[in-house]
Amino acid sequence: MARNTLSRSLHDVGLAAWFGGTLANAVALNEAAAEAGSAKAAGAVANAGWNRWTPVNAAAIGAHLIGSVGQLQANKRRVAQQQGAAGMSVVKTALTAAALGVTAYSRALGQIVAAGGATPSKRGTKPSKRARAEVAVAQERLDTLQWVIPALTGALVVVSSYAGEQQRPSEVLRGVSQKNPTV
């Protein structure tokens, strides 16, 4: 069995950055923006922070996806032969697709907020009463979605841990023999 250090590293580091960065921004950046001194400054600070995070997040997601494809390629035989491995792969793929979709939608909403300039804001995702209607709607949606992305990517971390456990030799032997009783 060949080593897959590069693809595993891309998978894991990319996912760690995607999860950790979005969680940190939800916990810290959006809340800290409220301390910028004024509602207008709060909006500007949140926009600046998220705009700086976006290229890093895109790179992290790209690394994760490249690593995921590499891992699937390296384990395709085991996934086909080991009971439970294909199901786990389907779950990981579905979670990844959901996280990508929510991330893309959040970015589109973030662009609406950023296009509004230094929109008055209570904090990063809480519009002030002076915010334009379309910006306020985008911020309100982002207020929920900022937690959905770390929840989905956190679930991916858990499923990835489970996938790693499936690769133990004893698990592979048991899974292959259960799927193919004649082995």
From TrEMBL:
This is Uncharacterized protein. It comes from Modestobacter roseus.
